[in-house]
Design goal:
By secondary structure, the chain is α/β, with parallel strands linked by helices. The protein has 2 domains: 108 residues, Roll (Urease, subunit C, domain 1), CATH 2.30.40; 305 residues, Alpha-Beta Barrel (TIM Barrel). It is built from 13 helices and 21 strands. The strands form 4 sheets. The protein has an 8-stranded parallel β-sheet with strand order 8-9-10-11-12-15-16-17. It has a 6-stranded mixed β-sheet with strand order 3-2-7-18-19-20. The chain has a 5-stranded mixed β-sheet with strand order 5-4-1-6-21, with no helix packed on it. The model has no long low-confidence stretch (mean pLDDT 96).
């Protein structure tokens, strides 16, 4: 069923949860030639039927931070493996960061990536361009040309512009071209040598610390500039309780700020690195329990708008070195959805999941959120909320295995992902002959 053919099937007995159309009830769904119908269309029989009683159907999920390795490092990830991992994890769309090799700071590189996406992608891939040339913070990238080439946002993630004047000018120009600005909040002068969260644990382990204030200073800068320039800024991957408080206050004052959090920061703390486990060396670093709880609270009360996977693949030999030499970053596409479900700890987390992982991410980028309205192109994920499984990095779709959640036992799993009217991922166990 996976491939280029448009979907022609019936979904029977599932619960549709769709904030955009105000739907939250058990309802059959019918898809013909990739288009959604609320009843069986006359003269158009289904090719197959999915019996999904007790299952959840959410509008297509969008991941706002995924690191693409094409061009530059196809040993760690290809477009095909990246989008297969995303589809298996329930995402029908991803936003790719610009730290490719060479950097995505020119139309030529953007077109090259777009060609690879057309050839190999299983889902929709939106592209970002660099805010500064080479993401080195010294000179602005050609933002107008990047917009014409098709990027939907600009960012230097996983870096932040050091020079305030250059960052200010970048925001002004991005606003002129209607480009969304995504800021990865880290003050480089305080964080660039950090190997772990600055704490008694990092001191005990002999690791250089990355303090909360390195993030919080950058968050405050983004808030201040957004307020003065009237420019919406999306702050990516906050990790400290102080950042949550800063964003909460900014929103109370009406500042045009949105933010997201990495899924693994909702479940794990710095204890995950206690045995020098490089798979848990992430960007930003895992912090303490007070931070984890504040992030979950911010997600629940609306301070945090979205959740991402922060998927950063690295080939095994790059991670199997001394902790201080290993690159920071972890994969997360196949686990992010159920990590957020587990971290929320709610009896019925799925309305919030639909909001935080579908509706809000699309709105942040200025894209129309997918929904189950009749006539829309099919774009959704089916979840079996009771399916028990153990995450095995060796059998994942990603070419890399640098996950801090290898061996973790989950309850609930994405079993069918549809993107742009086509099946991107399907668990064979749900098919009815």
């Amino acid at each position: 069923m996976k491939g280029k053919a448009l979907c022609n099937f019936d979904l029977i007995g599932g619960r549709l949860v769709d904030p955009c159309s105000g739907i939250d009830r058990v309802k059959d769904l019918f898809v013909r030639e990739g288009i959604i119908y609320s009843s069986i269309p006359a003269g158009k029989p289904a090719e197959q039927t999915f019996n999904i009683k007790e299952h959840i159907i959410l509008p297509g999920l969008l991941d706002l931070r995924v690191h693409n390795r094409v061009p530059g490092d196809t040993q760690s990830e290809t477009v095909q493996s990246l989008t297969q991992a995303a589809a298996k994890g329930g995402f029908s769309s991803i936003l790719a960061m610009p730290n490719t090799t060479p950097h995505s700071d020119n139309p030529g590189t953007i077109r090259y990536i777009q060609d690879r996406i057309k050839q190999a992608s299983k889902i929709k891939v939106h592209l970002t361009g660099c805010l500064t040339i080479g993401s080195n913070g010294k000179a602005l990238a050609p933002l107008g040309s990047l917009k014409e080439a098709g990027v939907v946002a600009v960012t230097d993630c996983p870096h932040s512009v050091r020079d305030n004047q250059i960052f200010t000018n970048a925001l002004k120009y991005a606003k002129m071209f209607g480009l969304k600005i995504i800021e990865y909040p880290q003050d480089p002068s305080l964080s660039e040598d950090g190997q772990a969260h600055e704490s008694s644990l990092s001191l005990k382990m002999g690791l250089t610390g990355n303090p909360r204030m390195a993030e919080e200073l950058a968050v405050q800068r983004a808030i201040t500039l957004s307020r003065h320039l009237k420019v919406p800024i999306h702050i990516s991957s906050i990790s400290s309780f102080g950042s949550v408080n800063l964003v909460k206050e900014a929103k109370r004052l009406g500042v045009k700020i949105s933010t997201d959090v990495s899924a693994h920061h909702l479940l794990l703390t710095e204890e995950a690195i206690s045995e020098y486990k490089t798979q848990a060396k992430t960007t930003p670093p895992l912090r303490e329990e007070i931070d984890r709880l504040a992030l979950i609270g911010g997600l629940k009360d609306g301070t945090i708008d979205s959740c991402n996977s922060s998927h950063e693949p690295y080939a095994e030999h790059l991670k199997q070195v001394e902790f201080d030499l290993a690159p920071s970053g972890a994969i997360g596409l196949e686990t992010a959805l159920m990590t957020v479900v587990e971290a929320l700890g709610e009896n019925d987390p799925f309305p919030k999941i639909a909001e935080k992982m579908s509706t809000n991410p699309h709105q942040i980028l200025g894209l129309p959120p997918p929904s189950f309205k009749e006539g829309n192109i099919a774009d959704f994920v089916v979840i079996n909320p009771e399916k028990k499984w153990t995450y095995n990095t060796d059998t994942g779709m990603s070419l890399s295995s640098n996950s801090p959640l290898g061996g973790h036992k989950f309850i609930g799993k994405a079993i069918l992902t549809v993107s742009s009217g086509k099946i991107a991922w399907c668990e064979d166990s749900i098919l009815i002959d």
